[in-house]
């Protein structure tokens, strides 16, 4: 089943515990601390922390996109009770992201907050982009919110088509007019406001405990390939119950120390 991205084993639970997204609760968890999570309303101006967001709008929404996304990115799910049928909270390096699927309005939203929010939003959205590429004939628009003075204060800001903004940038057009305020808004400011140009470097990732990701980013040498093999097989054996948490932890520490020496 794992091969088809249908379920994954929970690393910190009993060896026989699997989480299959299709078996997740339909109800949004009560512990969810995100304003406007169900209403689909942006309330970033009411939050104490600034929030980043993007959304995907589908002409026809393919089934199971969010489930697949949850499985593919399960390493960022720290609290399994915050994953349900139509949403999940992902955490990475001090950032939290809420991804929700709304069948009625045929969209998927990604909202992110905290330190490194931009990196997490970029990682998750790139994963959706990859999934979309595999679906032939899929019609989807990636939308990013306006950051003009009016929209920043608005619960319903204007959204721009990401592809069109990129085309503008390529064609040397620096601004775009907001439909709501008619203000000329910087194209680079819109794009760079939500997406990170460079996800953290390998050293930062290692320090954040993202060993596998860091190794994949480092130049491929015999040493990094060897370490990557050790961490991947360690995780697999741990998931299969062949290693206990302590043994797996020892492998991680050893690989981490060796990888830091290569920096
Ligand atoms: Zn605006």
Explain how this protein is built.
This protein is an alpha+beta fold. The chain folds into two domains: 2-194, 2-Layer Sandwich (TATA-Binding Protein); 202-261. Helices cover 36% and strands 19% of the residues. It has helices at residues 65-72, 117-133, 149-153, 162-170, 187-194, 202-207, 211-217, 222-239, 245-261; strands spanning 8-9, 18-19, 51-58, 83-84, 87-92, 95-102, 107-114, 140-145, 159-161, 175-177, 184-186. Strand 10 and strand 11 (184-186) form a beta hairpin. Helix 4 packs across helix 5 (187-194), helix 7 (211-217) packs antiparallel against helix 8 and helix 8 packs antiparallel against helix 9. It is globular, with a radius of gyration of 20 Å. It starts with 7 loop residues before the first strand and ends with a helix. Mean pLDDT is 84; it is low at 11-17 and 39-47. Zinc ion binds at residues 146, 148, 150-151, 157-158, 178, 180-181.
């Amino acid at each position: 089943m794992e091969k088809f991205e249908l379920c994954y084993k929970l690393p910190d639970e009993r060896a026989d515990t699997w989480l299959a997204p299709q078996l997740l609760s339909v109800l949004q968890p009560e512990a969810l601390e995100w304003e406007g999570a169900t209403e689909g309303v942006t309330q970033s101006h009411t939050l104490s922390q600034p929030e980043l967001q993007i959304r995907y709008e589908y002409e026809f929404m393919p089934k199971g996109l969010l489930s697949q996304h949850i499985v593919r990115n399960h390493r960022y799910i720290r609290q399994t009770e915050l994953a349900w049928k139509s949403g999940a909270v992902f955490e990475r390096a001090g950032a939290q992201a809420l991804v929700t699927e709304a069948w009625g309005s045929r969209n998927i939203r990604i909202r992110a907050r905290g330190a490194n929010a931009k990196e997490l939003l970029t990682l998750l959205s790139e994963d959706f982009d990859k999934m979309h590429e595999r679906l032939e004939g899929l019609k989807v628009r990636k939308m990013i919110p306006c950051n003009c003075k009016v929209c920043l204060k608005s619960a319903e800001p204007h959204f721009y088509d990401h592809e069109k903004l990129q085309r503008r940038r390529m064609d040397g057009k620096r601004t775009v007019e907001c439909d709501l305020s008619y203000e000329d808004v910087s194209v680079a400011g819109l794009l760079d406001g939500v997406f990170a140009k460079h996800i953290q470097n390998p050293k930062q990732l290692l320090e954040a405990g993202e060993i596998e990701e860091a190794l994949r980013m480092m130049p491929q040498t015999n040493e990094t390939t060897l370490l990557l093999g050790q961490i991947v097989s360690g995780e697999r054996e741990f998931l299969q119950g062949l290693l206990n948490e302590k043994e797996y932890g020892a492998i991680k520490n050893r690989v981490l120390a060796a990888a830091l020496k290569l920096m």
